What does this fold into?
Amino acid sequence: MAKVTAHDALSYSLKRDQAQFAEEAERLAKQAAYIAANPPADGRTVSGDITRLMQEAAFLLKRAVTIEAGLEAVGLMGAETATTEK
It folds into this structure.
């Protein structure tokens, strides 16, 4: 039976997170393009749309930082493993 390490588990999780992040970023970009191409109708302002976009962008930025920290941790785990195996 193969031994699953924390490095392996974190690497797998990060790959999934990165794929999901890319999908969400693409969706947000499409949403922003739609808002830019379709000005608000009478009686409606664009500020609510912009506010939602900003909130979603802030959430994505937080996720990007989390993913980046995870990648750094995987790198450090790999470096530690390499030095302990010598």
Observations:
- The mean pLDDT is 88.
- The CA atoms of residues 31 and 37 lie 10 Å apart.
